[in-house]
Amino acid sequence: MALRGMAVGEYGTTNRARLTCSRALCGVVAGACVSAASAADLSFRLADPQGRMLDGAVVSLLPLRGNALPAPRPAHIEQVDKAFHPLVSVVQVGTAVDFPNNDRVRHHVFSFSSAKVFELKLYAGRPAQPVVFDKPGVVVLGCNIHDRMLAYVVVVETPWSAVAGTDGLARLRGVPAGEYTMQVWHPQRLGKPDLPARALRVAGDLSESLVVDLKQ
Ligand SMILES: [Cu+2]
Fold it and tell me: What is the pTM of this model?
């Protein structure tokens, strides 16, 4: 199994007491959990089987039920010292992304990825229009002038997602209680099949460690 420790119902110690409590509540007041529970803060620490933290791993939670999602919020990916910041972004489908150039040299940002083909021709400062990422998928960014410039935009059909930092931690705040499909991606998986998804029930704050084998 690619995402060891991710079987449904296996949760860290931090979470177990809360989940048990929530399930007990469900038994008493059937169907009350989702509406009664407030939004949860989730924290996942992602490491590979050798224990290396998976900086840049993307965790996204896709709601199983088709309730209306919040509107996407604008995002930006800067260029500083001839590099994109951040290296990995995750955005909701429909997000308008600004690409401010904070360097003195001009950049020419482009993508040939099928999820979003675009180019911002040689420019300085701030482009006149943001780029709207309107399809799910992974978009690889480059610069026509500086070959080493590279970044990834993961476009997902949910506002509940996060990118792990150097500590391997991905934090998702304000996730409504409910049933989700959890997907993990990492730049090392570029061009490879999706890692197996996992079902996740959110019923309260959750803190969990995940082992992800990127080579499978
Ligand atoms: Cu450039």
Answer: 0.83
